[in-house]
Amino acid sequence: MDTYDLIVIGAGPVGENVADRAVQGGLSAVIVESELVGGECSYWACMPSKGLLRPGAALRGARDVDGAWQAVTGDIDPQGVFRRRDRLTHDWNDDGQVSWLRARTSTSCAGRGDSPASAR
Ligand SMILES: Cc1cc2nc3c(=O)[nH]c(=O)nc-3n(C[C@H](O)[C@H](O)[C@H](O)COP(=O)(O)OP(=O)(O)OC[C@H]3O[C@@H](n4cnc5c(N)ncnc54)[C@H](O)[C@@H]3O)c2cc1C
Questions:
Q1: Residue identifier of the C-alpha nearest atom 27 of ligand 1
Q2: By residue range, what is the domain housing residue 9?
Q3: What is the pTM of this model?
Q4: Is the CB of 2 inside a 6 Å radius of any atom of ligand 1?
């Protein structure tokens, strides 16, 4: 059985940084994540919400500027807005963040913190 100095439950921004700091400080750490490495911020909160807000803000910004507003002939394209959100969340694929985490911590695991986990 592997042993670690620290087991971090949840690979959101807080868990990722706690594990990273622990390893930088010379401890071994494993991080257990039941859904997506990156947590709420990357996939459900900060990133997608900012992605949804940006097209409206950009359009409003252009409409406020003389010389630019004349070029604005259409309205928001909802499908384009959702495509942008999906790109920012990498279509809810966390491979990139798993690699980032693996390079910094001892290992990462898929599973719940209250049940056996499998390394990935
Ligand atoms: C709409 C919205 C917009 C936001 N925008 C911003 C912003 O612009 N800037 C900002 O700073 N903050 C923003 N936030 C807040 C930000 O999302 C949170 O502060 C941040 O995600 C908290 O990080 P965390 O690591 O504590 O928790 P989380 O990101 O929730 O991560 C916890 C992780 O633990 C996992 N987990 C939980 N229980 C277990 C278990 N038993 N076993 C294994 N894994 C488990 C979960 O799957 C999750 O991945 C926003 C929030 C919302 C809702």
A1: 12
A2: 1-38+94-120
A3: 0.88
A4: no
